[in-house]
Structure formats: C-alpha cells, structure tokens
Amino acid sequence: MDPRTIVPKTKFEGFMMVLQNKNEALSRKIQLIPLKDVHEGKAKRVEIEGLRIAVTYINGSVYAFSDMCTHANYALSEGPIHAEDLTIECWKHGAQFCLKTGQAISLPATRPMNTYQVEVIDGDVYVHLPQEGSP
Ligand code: FES
C-alpha cells in the first residue's frame, strides 16, 4: 500500500469524516452583522433570508442562535443572558437554553434551539447556513 494513502483507523472514523465533509459542502457562509453592533452580554436580533437569528458576544466568543423559543415561539433576544453559565432565558415563561449547544436546560422548553456556527472576519460576524434546498 502506498504510505501516502490515508486510511481511517476505524470504520467509525471514516464514517464521521464523510459526514463532516458532507456538512461542509451543504453549508454556506453568510455575512450577518458588524461585530461592533453586538453588545457584550446582550442579544441582537438579525433577520436574514426569512430567519430570525440572535447574536451575542460573551468573554471574547460570539454565539448565534435561532431567535425563537422552542416552547411557544417568543423572541429569545428579549430575554436575559446569563454569562456565567452561557445561557439565555426566555422572558415569557423562563426556559433556559445553552448558548453553545442550544440544549433546553430548563422547563417548560424541552426541545433545543438552533445554533449556528459563527466566524468573525474583518470585524463582521458570519454564520453558516444550510445550502438552499438542503434538508
Ligand atoms: S415561550 Fe419561552 S418558555 Fe414559554
């Protein structure tokens, strides 16, 4: 075998590699907002392509997530952010969501919120969205 051939150590690793490449191919990077317009510890709503996305900045990291509570569709960007545990709290009934994973960590929400991969390039925040037409 050619020593330059890349062989996954396990079938599982090979499978993960394919999934990662597929996801990269299915996403596109969209310019969202200048970072200077996002205030530390506050959520800023941005509407793009029919999506409502909330962006916040905490301790040097930027987070982007769906601006819709999964309990009853109220805007999460109007609720408080708890920087100490990286959560946002829905102002309507108090559900909390992890800003990193989107996981619902307190009732009454039980479903996770969407989170988006974020990059900051030349002072602008970009999010990765699925390719149009992809599931
Ligand atoms: S609408 Fe958010 S907790 Fe009910």
Features:
four-stranded antiparallel sheet, three-stranded antiparallel sheet, globular, 135 residues, Rieske Iron-sulfur Protein, 1 helix, 10 strands, binds FE2/S2 (inorganic) cluster, mainly beta, single chain
Structure in words:
- With 135 residues, the chain is mainly β.
- It has 1 helix and 10 strands.
- Strands 2-3-4-8 form a 4-stranded antiparallel β-sheet, with no helix packed on it. It has a 3-stranded antiparallel β-sheet with strand order 1-10-9.
- The protein is globular and about 40 Å long.
- The model is unreliable at 1-23 (pLDDT under 50).
- FE2/S2 (inorganic) cluster binds next to loops.
- The site of FE2/S2 (inorganic) cluster has 11 residues, from loops.
